[in-house]
Design a protein that fits this description.
The structure is a single chain. Helices cover 42% and strands 28% of the residues. With 184 residues, the protein is an alpha+beta fold.
Length: 184
């Protein structure tokens, strides 16, 4: 019990430090080329072990190398999948899809949860913002999506959400491709 609590506290503190770094523009990026398909596959495998009882499916393939901070991109993927599981308590399925869109890779995380209303969709990536109905049911700080958004922007990508109330949500983000095995 105590060790889990301490682990949670440590995670919280490091998230807060991340947020303050991001806010002051001092986020350190360790930019290196990596294969995005493999990174996402590994993240899903690790999460599947950590969260048994949920089906996280992975489809698509880009064969792309992106340049970025792999640990930070992992944080984004972990956050989006964890949210998909957390905010869809009635559903056991999360779908992750990856494909090429022009000079970018696009990663999508779809859940079958409660969905997000239009007003909240506009504010969802703001620091400390939490949707009113979520505030009541789920404790948290509301910084995960803000941190994810800033990481993606720092990688010259975009993060956005498509959602309808009662229909679930799909969080998408793009990253520029450095090179692609299929067409150089």
């Amino acid at each position: 019990k105590v060790s889990i609590y301490i682990e949670k506290l440590n995670k919280l503190i490091s998230k807060l430090l991340d947020t303050s770094k991001i806010h002051s523009g001092n986020i350190e990026l360790h930019m290196e080329p990596f294969e995005i398909d493999k990174t996402i596959k590994d993240a899903i495998e690790n999460l599947s072990v950590a969260i048994p009882g949920h089906q996280i499916s992975f489809t698509g393939c880009t064969n792309a190398t992106v340049i970025g901070d792999e640990m930070q991109i992992l944080q984004v993927i972990n956050n989006l999948i964890s949210n998909a599981i957390k905010y869809a308590p009635g559903s056991k399925n999360v779908e992750v899809y990856i494909n090429n869109v022009g000079k970018f890779v696009k990663i999508s995380v779809k859940d079958y949860g409660m969905g997000i209303n239009h007003q909240d969709k506009i504010k969802i990536f703001e620091r400390f913002f939490r949707a009113s109905d979520i505030q009541k049911k789920y404790p948290g700080l509301g910084i995960g999506l803000y941190v994810s958004h800033e990481i993606v922007v720092n990688h010259k990508g975009t993060l956005w959400v498509e959602s309808e109330i009662g229909e679930g949500s799909t969080f998408n983000f793009t990253l520029p491709i450095m090179k692609n095995k299929n067409y150089g």
